[in-house]
Amino acid sequence: MHSLDSRYSVGATQFIRTFRENNIQFVTTVPDMLQIALHQELENPIHEIRSINCTTEDQAIETAAGIYAGGKRCAVLIQNQGFYAAINSIRALGLDGHIPLLLVIGQFGREFANLGHDPRLSNRLMVRMLEPVLETLGIPYQRLESENDTNNIDIACKTAFERNGPSALLVGHFVSFS
């Protein structure tokens, strides 16, 4: 199995299609390698989803909250490490402020031997602690581990906007080019 094993990847166009079905008009992000295919696909103006690159994950969360205050829907694309860095902004705006935050979190550092297995069994702390931290914060999450899980993109979207708070989609492997 090599690093781009397609059994564990979901195509960028699947994200775009589901974002559009859920009226996501913006994406804020600190660009990362795991989701590079999605970043590139978002650059195509035909999708009508504006991507805003941020310098920190806090800025991505805060910009998404501002977009929501302006009446639009936004997804936030970050890595697990960035999620940890932005917990206070997520708590203040998403949990205390009841702002829907769709967090699309790439599992940076996940070892290839763990693909297809429970991420909680990863040898890397930043991978295995993500779900317990989300549970501690009361943030519902969905795993995206293969094409079989593509409905979880829709579930995570709907959950954020129905609960008026954060919801996470945990992207287990590289997003594939479509």
UniProtKB/TrEMBL annotation:
<keyword id="KW-0210">Decarboxylase</keyword>
<dbReference type="InterPro" id="IPR051818">
    <property type="entry name" value="TPP_dependent_decarboxylase"/>
</dbReference>
<dbReference type="GO" id="GO:0016831">
    <property type="term" value="F:carboxy-lyase activity"/>
</dbReference>
<keyword id="KW-0456">Lyase</keyword>
<protein>
    <submittedName>
        <fullName>Uncharacterized protein</fullName>
    </submittedName>
</protein>
<dbReference type="InterPro" id="IPR029061">
    <property type="entry name" value="THDP-binding"/>
</dbReference>
